[in-house]
Specification:
elongated; alpha/beta; Ribosomal Protein L4, Chain: A; 2 domains
Length: 207
């Protein structure tokens, strides 16, 4: 099994722990990661775009002029698509962009994303993260001590002091272990896990 050093908030090594290879050191499969990112981004799309076709545009209930004798081409309505103010042909309509992805694919993609951070030496494990009060400045200084400027921080249990302190830092995001996802793991260059978060991820993803 792979091993990784465990640090405290002062960036001092306080121990070492083994990591489950099926979660943290598995083969990275880019095609699965790509499919999962597409799946996440597609599910975020609202799909509320819409335009009016000729039947939905107001007006145009009668012929603009008689069928014959004017010398013009015959017309049935001034709301036909070739008129200014007419309906749109084959325009976008409300739709659902989401698609199905198998549960095994989702798990394998997340393991690949996490493993890419471990294999690229961009994974850091902390024994705990404790803040006595809500303070963005204090938390920012702690990140500086850890040598981190942009990171995804994953904790095992709700920590409102931490979550609120990190909320205004644009290059930092705090997630609970049950909310870890491929897109956020890839978005931030470093992944920081607390020891209880490691345990939860191994319990949920280990094969």
């Amino acid at each position: 099994m792979a091993k990784i050093a465990v640090y405290d908030m002062a960036n001092q090594q306080v121990g070492e722990r083994e990591l489950n290879d099926s979660v943290f050191n598995t083969e990275v499969k880019p095609y699965l990661v790509h499919d999962m990112v597409r799946y996440q981004l597609a599910a975020r799309r609202q799909g509320t775009h819409a335009v009016k076709n000729r039947s939905a545009v107001a007006g145009g209930g009668r012929k603009p002029y008689k069928q014959k004798g004017t010398g013009n081409a015959r017309q049935g309505s001034i709301r036909a698509p070739h008129y200014v103010g007419g309906g749109v042909v084959f325009g976008p309509q409300p739709r659902d962009y989401s698609f199905k992805l198998n549960r095994k694919v989702k798990k394998a993609a997340l393991c690949s994303a996490i493993s890419s951070r471990f294999q690229g030496e961009k994974l850091k494990v902390l024994n705990r993260i404790e803040l006595e009060a809500i303070s963005t400045k204090t938390f920012s200084q702690a990140l500086g001590t850890l040598g981190l400027q942009s990171a995804l921080i994953v904790v095992g249990q709700p920590d409102f002091n931490l979550e609120l302190s990190a909320r205004n830092l644009k290059n930092v995001k705090v997630l609970r272990a049950d909310g870890v996802n491929v897109y956020d793991v890839l978005k931030y260059p470093h992944l920081v896990l607390t020891e209880d978060a490691v345990e939860q991820l191994e319990g949920a993803l280990a094969r």
